[in-house]
């Protein structure tokens, strides 16, 4: 039976959504001054989390959007042998994002100290301590994943079966016509496939201590290049660089943020962002080329 919310409920929901978006925009722009001196830009103004928060306040921000004003992935569980190892693999995502928040703050603080040394002083009221709020808001509070568990439908499902399941799941949460589904947000287009191989693989990253070392965030970021997750598409497309549909592929752990925001407009099947990884001969592996801005990707061999 269909249910309908009252006009008052819809209005209240819209007001809450508007207030939340305003909060994100305020946090994204809460820094001063933009420059300390000609040519010396405030590191607080350049931190990625501020840009991302502003994006979230402007895209998929309405109450009708599933997961509005958050980012993250749908996780399809296809292995049910061990709940503990599965929970550990899922938990790695949050631990990694916590490390990224700490790393960003450290980078901003180092930038402020460097500018203080070069400018001899910082403007009145500005310290060398980074504001933790943007990083915490983006990497911790706004990073939300959906864990989908359906033993009957997903246990030992092939990538093609998981893709078909995911499409049905996503369409139930898409507030629009099916033919316009390509306009849905990234979390309804691409899902993580947590099969037996992926869950076992992520145990290695779970053993890594993100809090130790001279620069824990940087070390976590570089270590994560060796780890990956599998992805499936809700609407597999014909591949530009090969035959058949691109039903599933691997994404390096350190690319999860950039891939999600790039997935808003980019179709993986027609992207140039493919790496030939000798560990996985014949498989499709996505990795962003960090030498360019905006994010683009190239095909290269390891």
Description:
The chain contains 10 helices and 10 strands. It is α/β, with parallel strands linked by helices and about 300 residues long. The chain has one domain (about 10-300). The strands form 2 sheets. It has an 8-stranded mixed β-sheet with strand order 4-3-5-6-7-9-8-10. It has a two-stranded antiparallel sheet with strand order 1-2. Helix 1 packs antiparallel against helix 3 (about 50-60) and helix 4 (about 85-120) packs across helix 9. It is globular. The model is unreliable at about 1-5 and about 290-300 (pLDDT under 50).
Distance between the termini: 55 Å
SSE series: HEEHHEHHEHHEHHEEHEEE
Q: How many domain units?
A: 1
Helix count, DSSP H or I runs of 4 or more residues: 10
Strand content: 5-15%
In total, how many beta strands?
A: 10
| Apparent shape | globular
Give helix % range. 40-55%
Radius of gyration: 21 Å
Please write out the topology:
Layout: H1 7-28, E1 35-37, E2 40-41, H2 43-46, H3 48-58, E3 74-77, H4 83-119, H5 133-141, E4 146-149, H6 151-154, H7 159-171, E5 190-194, H8 196-206, H9 216-223, E6 228-233, E7 248-252, H10 256-262, E8 274-276, E9 285-286, E10 300-301
Parallel strand pairs: 3-4, 3-5, 7-9, 8-10
Antiparallel strand pairs: 1-2, 5-6, 6-7, 8-9
What is the compact description of this entry?
The protein has helices at 7-28, 43-46, 48-58, 83-119, 133-141, 151-154, 159-171, 196-206, 216-223, 256-262, and strands spanning 35-37, 40-41, 74-77, 146-149, 190-194, 228-233, 248-252, 274-276, 285-286, 300-301.
């Amino acid at each position: 039976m269909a249910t309908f919310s009252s006009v008052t409920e819809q209005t209240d929901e819209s007001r809450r959504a508007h207030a939340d978006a305003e909060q994100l925009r305020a946090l994204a722009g809460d820094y001063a001054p933009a420059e300390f001196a000609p040519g010396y830009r405030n590191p607080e103004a350049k931190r990625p989390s501020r840009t991302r928060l502003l994006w979230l306040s402007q895209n998929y921000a309405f109450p009708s959007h599933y997961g509005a004003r958050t980012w993250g992935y749908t996780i399809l569980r296809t292995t049910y042998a061990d709940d503990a190892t599965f929970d550990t693999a899922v938990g790695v995502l949050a631990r990694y994002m916590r490390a990224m928040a700490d790393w960003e703050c450290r980078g901003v603080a180092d930038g402020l100290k460097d500018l203080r040394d070069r400018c001899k002083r910082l403007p009145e009221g500005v310290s060398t301590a980074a504001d933790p709020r943007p990083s915490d808001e983006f990497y911790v509070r706004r990073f939300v994943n959906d864990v989908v568990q359906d033993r009957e439908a997903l246990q030992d499902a092939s990538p093609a079966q998981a893709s078909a399941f995911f499409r049905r799941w996503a369409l139930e949460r898409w507030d629009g016509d099916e033919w316009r589904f390509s306009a849905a947000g990234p979390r309804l287009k691409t899902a993580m496939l947590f099969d037996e191989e992926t869950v076992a693989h992520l145990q290695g990253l779970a053993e890594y201590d993100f809090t130790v070392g001279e620069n824990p965030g940087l070390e976590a970021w570089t270590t994560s290049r060796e780890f990956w997750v599998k992805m499936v598409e809700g609407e597999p497309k014909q591949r530009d660089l090969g035959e058949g549909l691109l039903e599933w592929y691997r994404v390096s752990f350190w690319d999860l943020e950039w891939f999600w925001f790039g997935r808003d407009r980019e179709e993986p099947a027609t992207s140039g962002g493919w790496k030939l990884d000798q560990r996985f001969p014949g498989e499709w592996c996505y990795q962003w080329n960090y030498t360019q801005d905006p994010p683009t990707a190239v095909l290269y061999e390891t």
